[in-house]
Amino acid sequence: MGDAGGAAELGHAEEALCLAAVERLFERAGLGEVSTHEQLAKQGAAEAVAGGALAASLVYGEILTPLHLFRTLRLGPGDVFCDLGSGRGQVVLAAAMLGDVPDDRSELSGPPRRSVGVELLRPRHDAAAAALEVAPQEVQDRCDFRCEDALAADLREATKVYVCNAAFPRHLNDAFSRALAPAKAPNLKAVATCAALPEESLPVACLELAEVASIAATWATEGAPLFLYKRCGLGSFSALGRSSRPMPASVRYEADRQLQSASSSRSAAESGRGMAPEDERSLLRSAGIAWALKASSSS
């Protein structure tokens, strides 16, 4: 019990150091917390929706435990890490700064060879670019931010991918899964998502579920599921070290519910029965995330 508690405290301290290092870049760039959170949740969204983007795909949120994400992905110096829907670039910058923040458990051996963020909305991309501009030169050399549709991104070099898809409807998750197929991402080894991918899309993408972990996020500070998928035929794939984040019962319940929903072969919408239950739940998650972010920004 004491060892578990100590490991958890150490993990929280490491995550806090990591986030603080990234936040200092935004402060140096003149971007305060309100500018990077509350305003970025709104800026550019109306224009993107008018241009055909799905509103649920633009809901803004961030994970609060990037180091745990990197350990789950087994991120290392030989990797090209890609965050699809990277927002203001917090996770991408954190990956590029690995080594600058002490990892007392010596599980993360260093930053990836490249750390890439793909973001559709210009204000979010501009915030990431501004933070990168004031980062140390070695971080700048490892980072690349692109303002484009993540579904059309060049993923030929990507080995590890992260998608913050907590509010995505089923058909969009299906599209992201298929965008990671071997023909489009030939070097991909693993992808981590905040919502389960539809089971019927996994054979096309040549992906299989390897692990379910727990992360903290702005929409679920006590814990949310993180789904790790690996390329089929890759062999065993497990996170680095022992998790410092035990999975709460509520997170396990949500993960099991999502996996059960993802296992249905076709959505109700595809069968002509209107909106699929998973899409309805996606809308509720979108509303819940938006409410949580609004509440946190006003407190």
Automatic annotation (TrEMBL):
Residues 261-271 have a biased composition (Low complexity). InterPro entries: DOT1_dom, FAM173A/B, SAM-dependent_MTases_sf. Gene3D superfamilies: Vaccinia Virus protein VP39. GO terms for molecular function: histone H3K79 methyltransferase activity. Residues 57-184 form the DOT1 domain. Belongs to the ANT/ATPSC lysine N-methyltransferase family. This is DOT1 domain-containing protein. It comes from Polarella glacialis.
